Structure formats: C-alpha cells, structure tokens
Amino acid sequence: MPDTYSMLLFDGFSNLCLANAVEPLRAANTLARRELYQWSFLSLTEAPIHSSSGLPVQATPLSSLLSGAYLFAMPSYGFEALATPATARALRAASKRFETLVGLDTGAYLLAAAGLLDGRRATCHWDTLPQAAETFPEVDFTEDRFVIDGDRVSCGGATTTLELMLELIERRHGAALSLEVAALFMYGERAPSVPPDRLFPSHRTVKAAAALMRRHVEDPLQIDALAAKLHLTRRALELAFRDHAGLSPGALYRSIRLAEARRRLEQTRDSVAEVALRSGYRDATAMTRAFKAEFGITPSAARAAVKTEGSAQTGRRSEGR
C-alpha cells in the first residue's frame, strides 16, 4: 500500500513549499515505477484556499479524512491569526488519526499552539524562531534546517522542505532512491565558486556527486574525474558513498543512466541504439545487458509494455463513451 501524505493548506501558503513537498513524492513514484506515495490537499473549511501568490486550490475538508501516514500543516504568512482555538482543536483531533504530524514553514507554530510539540525538539521559519521559542518555552526550538523527533517533524521553509522530503524518502525506501530524486532536481551540486577547502560532510558529498552524475549522463565521467570535481580522492568519495548510501558511486551512476534510458524508451521514438548513446553507452548491446539486469526486461520489452498499456487505456476510454 502506498504511504499517504496529506497537505493541510492555510490561506497564504507558499507555492514553493507545497511544490517541494509534493514533487519529490511524484518523482519517487516515477523513478520507482510504482505508486509508493499518494497525496491529497486538505483545509479546515470547504472554501478555496489561496497561496501567497494567489494560486487557488480546492481542498478537501480535513474532517473528512479518517486516517493517514503524514499530515503536513502548511501555513506561511499570517500564522499568528491562524493559531485559533478552532485550529488547535482540529490539529489535536487529527493527531489521533495520523501517524505523524509535520509543520512546514511556520507550521510548527500552529502545532506548538495546539500543545502537540510539548517536550519535543522542533524548528520553524527562522524569521519566526525567536518568537516561537519565547511563546512556547515547553518546546525545544532549534535552528536546524529540519527536525525529526519521533512522530513530530518540522522544517524551516520552502527550500528546507525539499531536504526533509529527501530524508523521508531515504528512511522509507533507501538512499539510492533518495539520491536519484535529488539528482533529478539537480539538488546538492556544489557551486563552482565554492573553494576546495570547504568540503561537505559525507551526505552532502554524496548528493553533490549524484547531481554531477545527472549532468553527465550522455558523456559519463570516470569515477576518478567525478571525485576530482568534488576536490576529493576516489577513495574518499567511495567511503562517503559507503557510509551514507551503502553502495558504490558506480552503482548509483549506473542506476541514474539506466533510469534515463528507460525514460527515453517510454517517452520518445528514439531507436535503442540512440537511447544507448544518450544514456552514456557506446554499445547498445552493453546497454541492453545492463538494462535487463536492472529492470528484469529488455529495452524493447519496456517500450512494448508502454504501448500495450496505452492501447488498453484508449480501449477503456472508448468503452466509457
């Protein structure tokens, strides 16, 4: 069964925060080729909710959802006005139906106002962190980018939401999938201006390497060259991958290239030979062997399966007319 992620939106929520919460889940489903996650948009009322930039969202009332894995509280501006007794009652009731509550942006403020973070570590948007810490002394507010404290989770803003989602994906489905999602969004690549002496910790190093791999699919870098671009030795890069991801740089690189090969097979009319070249294989036979080892089917079979599925969907639509 897929995990259910429910986004509780408040007027003035951040589009970027919402996208950074949902798009990694969509990408994980796409890369895994199965529905690992489902998500829904909720509100406390039946009226449309508008983002801070005016985007309207017709959400389902929170009270109508009986249970779920995660409930993400997502306010942004005007959070103090939202911290009403009615909001607190709704969140406390939801805490009995959802396995984990998450405060995004200023969401931890609303969770704290409902008494749902007492005795917990949490973070909030850093502009409001001092105010939250003063208002709710029973909560251990910290400047971390995100905090996971058992079944209470919080993060400080839109960009940190992406980091949080990658962490949740990794905890549920492993480092390899999380790194592929990060690479898909070009997340983690070191800016060229960062000097060599400012090395990342191992988890940042691995994400930076994955982003570089994504940039160099058609003309793959040798692992030594990849390490050099990160100002590391090959040994240091391999140790970072072993410690953080439990796999080798070569194994992740192969998965990223083969995922791109499968995408091209399913979404373009390129020949298998062309797909091989675009995926960094000079020999289509070598790509076919690697593809079958990775996915259990040949490239031709993968393409045929998409055509068969498309024909079946067309037939179902015709029957419904």
Name the beta content range: 5-15%
Q: State the end-to-end CA separation.
A: 31 Å
Give the uncertain stretches in residue-range form. Answer: 191-199, 314-319
Radius of gyration: 22 Å
Overall pLDDT metric? 89
Shape: globular
Order of helices and strands: EHEEEEEHHEHEHEEEHHHHHHHHH
Separate helix tally: 14
This entry's quaternary arrangement is single chain
Specify the helix fraction band. 40-55%
Identify the CATH architecture of the largest domain: 3-Layer(aba) Sandwich
- Going by CATH, what is the homologous superfamily of the largest domain? Class I glutamine amidotransferase (GATase) domain
Kindly describe this structure:
With 321 residues, the chain is of the alpha/beta class. The protein has 2 domains: 3-171, Rossmann fold (3-Layer(aba) Sandwich), CATH 3.40.50.880; 176-312, Homeodomain-like (Arc Repressor Mutant, subunit A, Orthogonal Bundle), CATH 1.10.10.60. It has helices at 15-32, 79-82, 85-95, 107-113, 129-135, 158-173, 175-184, 202-215, 223-229, 234-244, 249-267, 272-278, 284-295, 299-319; strands at 3-9, 37-43, 49-50, 56-57, 60-61, 68-74, 98-103, 121-122, 140-141, 146-149, 152-155. It starts with a strand and ends with a helix. This is Helix-turn-helix domain-containing protein. It comes from Gymnodinialimonas ceratoperidinii. It holds the Pfam family DJ-1_PfpI. Residues 207-305 form the HTH araC/xylS-type domain.
